[in-house]
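Researcher: I'm comparing several assemblies side by side, and this is the next one on my list. It has 1062 residues spread over three chains. Same procedure as the others: predict the full complex and return the structure.
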Amino acid sequence: MSNTAASKTNPGNFFEDFRLGQTIRHATPRTVTAGDVAVYQAIFGPRFAVQSSDVFAKKIGYRQAPLDDLLVFHVVFGKTVPDISLNAVANLGYADCRFLKPVYPGATLSATSEVIGLRENANRKTGIVYVRSRGFDETGDCVLDYVRWVMVAKRDEAAPAPPETVPQLPKAVEPARLGSACPRIDTAAYDNVLAGSAHRFGDYKPGDKIDHVAGVTVEDAEHMMATRLYQNTARIHFDHFTASQGRFGKRLIYGGHAMSLARALSFNGLGNAFHVAAINGGRHVAPLFAGLTVFAWSQVLACADLPGRSDVGALRLRTIATKDKPCTGFPSKTGEDYDAAVILDLDYWALMPR
Amino acid sequence: MSNTAASKTNPGNFFEDFRLGQTIRHATPRTVTAGDVAVYQAIFGPRFAVQSSDVFAKKIGYRQAPLDDLLVFHVVFGKTVPDISLNAVANLGYADCRFLKPVYPGATLSATSEVIGLRENANRKTGIVYVRSRGFDETGDCVLDYVRWVMVAKRDEAAPAPPETVPQLPKAVEPARLGSACPRIDTAAYDNVLAGSAHRFGDYKPGDKIDHVAGVTVEDAEHMMATRLYQNTARIHFDHFTASQGRFGKRLIYGGHAMSLARALSFNGLGNAFHVAAINGGRHVAPLFAGLTVFAWSQVLACADLPGRSDVGALRLRTIATKDKPCTGFPSKTGEDYDAAVILDLDYWALMPR
Amino acid sequence: MSNTAASKTNPGNFFEDFRLGQTIRHATPRTVTAGDVAVYQAIFGPRFAVQSSDVFAKKIGYRQAPLDDLLVFHVVFGKTVPDISLNAVANLGYADCRFLKPVYPGATLSATSEVIGLRENANRKTGIVYVRSRGFDETGDCVLDYVRWVMVAKRDEAAPAPPETVPQLPKAVEPARLGSACPRIDTAAYDNVLAGSAHRFGDYKPGDKIDHVAGVTVEDAEHMMATRLYQNTARIHFDHFTASQGRFGKRLIYGGHAMSLARALSFNGLGNAFHVAAINGGRHVAPLFAGLTVFAWSQVLACADLPGRSDVGALRLRTIATKDKPCTGFPSKTGEDYDAAVILDLDYWALMPR
């Protein structure tokens, strides 16, 4: 079993490999194209008019139809996986995620991450790594900026624990920091009929609950194709042979897949929430597997003005996705315990025309 | 279970919501791209040279390779679903469907429908809605025009029945109304070898039967991806959880999926029928589900000249698709009863070079 | 059962239909686009930076990101199937396959084949056909040139055997004949970090073995979509109804699918082997079916200079793919017998920057 080249494969980083303040330039820059848009469309089926039609987008102020915000997120996220989460035990959370510039077909995305926190666990077998990751386009502009933290395995329990640093993270992005990726919208030119919803910013109020009604069953081929589209290599999504002997017994679906399904389902009731401006936090509450059917509902947490803008307002939304449970009853959390069907609890800001 | 925002989701229209003469502008304009062409190619595998190669298409008279005619049909059809058939009980038929202008990657399609007929059923629980739907490109030109009728549920049985109007519909589009979407073809430049068939218009005669030989098994991931590509949201195609408790026990495949499979299979024997100029009628005879294998055969019903054109002729074709039954025996109809394996009976005009 | 048009379908060629020296122009020219690139990306997940990013590719010397070499191979191969292998009993081998020119989105590929060998088998029921196939772009330049041989059924055992001609084929392409599809690479501009590997040509030596670690489970929808993307019509890949009664009991996955999976997996350990310059030989050792998980490992057979070039070197690689068996133990061949898990044994040259 002679393998003189073992070192040429990527073992990923273990907890003790990370250093506070370390900056990582991720591999695999990616030119995103109309092809990627079509594959994403086929897997998730979004109907937001801005991303669907060049004509609609231009009419209201975009250069052309921009890429779906979550597609941009997943492509950038995918680039961080080989360096940040190859040896992750669990993806714990997100915060302070802002979409900063529209991304159009033909743009080339690359990513970096900065280690902003480290905290070894008491059991000394794992530790939490906090990173701020950024996606850039080919001009060098930052298009996306977010914080994520993951529980990463240690290679060697005896490796000394780093000084504990846990970053202060906002519970939500402030409205003043929203909207960089949304041009000034010509609201008179924004056609509600073509958009598919008569409800604009002023029609929503905090406390509103919206059941998005439809359910969509996930297939293995679909989630694998989406995850590979993002060049996200995490093995647990692809390898049934190994997964069948593991914790779940089957391939685990990338948490971002449920985010995109829920976002697409949310069109029904939030059809004019055309831009995800920021993600405040997200929790993958329970695992998702092929064969299960995803449903979703949303609650409006807040309605905010964007200082200096009168074209759009921001809705702070909490979208919950479930597996095999329609959301007529708005399944959620009681105390600390989620309804057993909940798979995703996502807190984000979406912009709507006034 | 407080839901103050229930009204924001789309319940679709019920039979009593339609009015004769009503015009509906559908939502979700869509820029169709080379990405959509590739996804469609991957799901159906068509080999018609005109849509496959820009060089071939330009050589014979197109600006570049146009989109597959049925891809255009499905994208336009998908836009009508939220308004016309969300509460449909059955899709009853099509007529007078004409392809009017080539659609190229980069075009933006939108759709409208006019209610041209209404007939409540005796049971007062449902009614038939007849609509003429049109697809437009970004210049405002009509690219597709067809009539469809569906059985739609009533919200309230007691709602008064509208005056009965059943439109007169042609059994077939007249040859004189064919060919607007087909430029003058340079038949000398049309290379049979590259096209994959030595048989041109004059080689077919009424009565010819062609078994297309190959079968293709459908997977859930495929039909869902195709249907989402068209932004067709009908729930029964996507939601196994709900379907498992319903009439079929599983997800029903969009009827148009069988049309596209049959059209792709028909290349074997009709390789030079490069353009679907019109659909005279179509019947989804039996439901199609994943795991079944689709076969197809065609009969030439008529061979017609296009007045004023000598480049192409029109074949009126009847293509029958089956599930799990090769078509060596040309399974069809005896009296009013179809062979149990038949899933689709499609009557259309295709153009062939002379 | 009147079928006057039976002759219009393509029965494919049988062994006795081929003539030595015969040249076949294949059908179905195909414009390859960014859409095809995205679908291929979604099915195989390659991470080589050159094909992933226009910026990276241009920086080192390409016009833009070229298509994945194996995608070009499969598209060309697909065009030969209706003429060469519709009645094939087995795909026996490849040799002398060279990639000659970069192919970019927007190119139109067509193919020809020349019969360079014929050998009827002693049983008189089959014979081996050797063809040299070439892929061309729209300028008429040859982009790909390879030899393949298949065992083809005879229509009529009594048909006379042709004179036996077995071509002399090189065991491997000589290094001097490599690299036409690879522009002069600016190795200083080639960024290892963005490429995802610190190992360049000089870091490998003959005998090195690299386990590529990850496994990927194949789904029917995926392999059918890929094979249809290439317009490869071989029925055994698509028709479960017929296959269920046949030799394997299920759909056989196109051998090229395993090649592309293995190539994508090989990124881990060979991340800078950015261009497949030639394929020396390939054997589909055992069939692959959906539900199985593909693993791969590679051995460096040789490291060669390209005469007159100092930018890149060529690694002769042997990549072995397995089903349901991780490659930590480098499963291979003992004498003439392969490990039961081996599905593919591929011998090729890949270029790496110095």
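Model: For your comparison table: The first strand of chain C starts at residue 23 and ends at 25.
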